[in-house]
Design brief:
- Helix 1 packs parallel to helix 4.
- The protein has a seven-stranded parallel beta sheet, sandwiched between helices.
- The protein has eight helices and seven strands.
- The chain is α/β, with parallel strands linked by helices.
- The C terminus is likely disordered.
Amino acid sequence: MLERILGENEQTAAANRADFEKAQVTVVNLMSSPGAGKTSLLRETLRRLQGKLRIGIIEGDIETSLDADRLEGFGAAIALVNTGNGFGGECHLDAPMVRSALPRLPLEELDLVVIENVGNLVCPAEFEVGEHGRAMVFSITEGEEKPLKYPVMFRSADVVVVNKIDLLPYLDFDLQAFYANLRAVNPTVTVIETSVKTGQGIDDWCSWLTGVRSSGPSQAQTV
C-alpha cells in the first residue's frame, strides 16, 4: 500500500515539475517543525525580494489561513492548501495537494514558487512535490540532537537555515554539537545562520534562493 501511495505521488510530482519547467518557474520546498520561524523568514524574504523576483507561495497548513494572511501585502501570489479540507488533515503536503493549488497561481508570470510545507519534522521530507530544491528551517530552541532523531528531514535538505540565532546567548544550546550531528547525517549540506529579529543572515538566505533560480543551489556557508 505504501509503495502504491508513494508511486502515485511520484507520478504527480513529475507532472508538477513538468508544469513548473514549462512555465520556467523554480520551486523550493520549505520545511520545518512547528514554530521554527519559517513564516516569519518567508515574510522577510518577500519584503526583501519584492520587485526583484516574481514570487508565488503555496501555503500549507492543516487548518486556518493565519500564516497565509501574514504573507499578504508583499506582491506575492498566494495559494492556500488546508489539509484538513478534503485531504484528511495530513501533516504534510504531497504532490496531489500541491497540484490542487497550481490553478490558483499565475505560473507563467512567476520566477520562483516557495512551498511552505506543514510544520512537521517527519512526513514532509518523505513526499516529493515537484520541487527543484529543498530548504529546512531549524530553530536553535529545538535542541542540538534533532538531526540524529529526524535524519530523513535533515538528510533531504539542500540548505539548513539555523534560525533564531540571536537567542544563542540565552539558551543551553551547543551549536558545535548541532553541527557535528548535522554533518553526521548530511555532510555536504549548506548552512545559513539567521535571525529575523536582527536581520542576520537574511541576505545570505535570499542569495541562496536567487542562486537556485539562476543556476541551482549556491553555497552560502559550509558546516
